[in-house]
Design brief:
The chain is α/β, with parallel strands linked by helices. The protein has 15 helices and 17 strands. It has helices at about 35-50, 80-85, 95-105, 120-125, 130-135, 155-160, 170-185, 205-210, 220-230, 245-255, 300-310, 330-345, 355-365, 380-385, 390-399, and strands at about 15-20, 25-30, 30, 55-60, 90, 110-115, 140-145, 165-170, 190-195, 215-220, 260, 265-270, 280-285, 290-295, 315, 350-355, 370-375. The chain has a 6-stranded parallel sheet, sandwiched between helices. It has a 6-stranded parallel sheet with strand order 11-10-9-15-16-17, sandwiched between helices. Strands 13-12-14 form a 3-stranded antiparallel sheet. Helix 9 (about 220-230) packs across helix 10 and helix 11 (about 300-310) packs parallel to helix 12. It is elongated.
Amino acid sequence: MPSFKTLDDIAPAGKRVLIRVDLNVPMEDGKVTDMTRIERVAPTIAELADKGAKVVVLSHFGRPGGKVVPEMSLKALVEPLAATLKKPVAFAENCIGPLAQQAVAALKNGDIVLLENLRFHKEEEKNETGFIDQLAALGDIYVNDAFSCAHRAHASTEGIANRMPAVAGRLMQAELVALDKALGTPRRPVAALVGGAKVSTKLELLGNLVSKVDRLVIGGGMANTFLHAQGINVGKSLCEKDLAGTARDILAKAAAAKCKVLLPVDAVVAGAFKAGAASLTVDIAAVPDDQMILDIGPKSIAMLKSDLAECATLVWNGPLGAFEVAPFDAGTVAIAREAASLTSAGKLLSVAGGGDTVAALAHAGVEDKFSYVSTAGGAFLEWMEGKELPGVAALVRAA
C-alpha cells in the first residue's frame, strides 16, 4: 500500500489546519436530505478541534461553473455541520481574499470556520497557481479528507498538497486502508460484482478487474450485452449490441487470466419496466422476444451465493437488476444480504461503492453491515479501474 501521513503525524495545536472535505450533499428546499457525508467527515474535524487546531473547512457544492450561485452556497450547511459536531461553526462569505482572511484570523484554538464554495472560483477546477497560493496562505497544515474528490486534480485536492505539510484525514485513511485490503493486498479468492445499465461506462473497470480478481460477477443491463455477445437472445432488454465484440474480448482476457466470469443463468422478465408489471422467471436461453430482463432469477441467486461462500474478499459496484422497482429488487437484495451475513460471520471482507450501490445496499438494509461502504462515486470507480487518483498521489508525494 502506498505510504501517506495521517493525523497521527502532525501536532495541530495552535496551527491553522485547512481540511478539504466533501459536503456536496443532497438537498431539498434548503434542507439536507442525506447526512452521510457530513457524518463521515465530522470525526476528523472534531479531532482537530479537540487537539487545539484552528480548523478551516474547505468544500465545493454542486457545479456553479466558477460563478456565485446563491442556491449553491455552503452557508446552508453551517447548521447541520455544527449540529453533527456539537460545536459552533463560523462561516466566511468567500474562500479566499479579505473575508476568508478575516474569518481565519478570528479563530481561537479549537474553533472551526467553514469557507464558501470553492467552485465559485473557476480557478479551483483549473488548479490555478494563484488560487492555490491564496488558499495555502490561510493555513499551516493541509488535511485531505475527501476521497470522493481525489480523482480531480483541483487546487483544493491536489495543488495545495504541494504547498504545505499534507496528511490524510480519518475518512481518507479508512478509505485507502479498505481499498488496499480489497484489491491491493487482498485475501483470496477475490470476487468483484459489477452491475449497472451499460458496459460502455465500465469498460476500463472490467478490463482492469479480470487481471486482478478470481471471480467477476456481471449483472444489471451490462450482463445482457455479454449474453448477446455469446449468441443468447435477450428479447427487448437493454443491450449495447454494438459492443458485442468488446464483450467477447473481455471474456477472452478473463479466460487467459483464469478469472471466472459469472453471468445470469435465469432471469425475471417483464413486458415493461414499471411497478406492478406482470413478470415471469425463465431460463436465460428462453427469454421471449417481447420481454425484457429486469433481474436475475432464483437459480442465479443460488449460484452466486455458492460462489460467494468460497470467496474471502468482495468488491461491489452496481446493482444486479432494476432494484428501484419491486419485484425486480429480489436478486440485488438477496446477494447483498448474503454478503452481509458472510461479513458478519468473519468469512468475507466486503467493500462497496458508487451511488447506485450505496442506494441498493440501503434498500436491502445492509449498508452498515459491509466491511466498508464508500460514499465516493467517480473516485471509487477510477480506483477500481486502476487509475492514479491525483488527490491520493499528492498525499503520497507529501509523505
